[in-house]
Amino acid sequence: MNNIKILNQTPTEIEFEIEDESHGVCNALRHILMQNEDVEYAVYNIDHPLTGKPIMTIKTTGADPKDALKKAAEQLKEDSESFKQLIEENL
């Protein structure tokens, strides 16, 4: 099970570490976050490709960054389910 560890938090910014994730999920999440007009930026870094844990930072223009993260995670889940269904129907 993946865990999220909050490293720093302000009313408009959150920095957190995600255990057992890779560039794939982090980049997809970052892409969705950047489509949110309340998000000023969303970035992540993985120090080492084999052993590093992703650290993501979300900065908003005033909205709660946790709300933006929850909304993006829900969108990612919906997109993944739609893609899975598309594959199952066409293969």
What is the global morphology?
Answer: globular
What structural class results from the helix and strand content? Answer: alpha+beta
Number of helices: 2
Order of helices and strands: EEHEEH
Number of strands: 4
Unreliable stretches covering 5 or more consecutive residues:
none
Explain the layout of strands and helices.
Layout: E1 4-9, E2 13-18, H1 23-34, E3 39-45, E4 55-60, H2 65-90
Antiparallel strand pairs: 1-2, 2-4, 3-4
Helix pairs in contact: 1-2
Structure in words:
By secondary structure, the chain is α+β, with helices and mostly antiparallel strands. Helices cover 42% and strands 27% of the residues. It has helices at 23-34, 65-90, and strands at residues 4-9, 13-18, 39-45, 55-60. β1 and β2 form a beta hairpin. The longest helix is centred in the last third of the chain and has 26 residues, at 65-90. The termini are far apart.
Essential attributes:
91 residues, alpha+beta, four-stranded antiparallel β-sheet, 4 strands, 42% helix, globular
Entry summary:
By secondary structure, the protein is an alpha+beta fold.
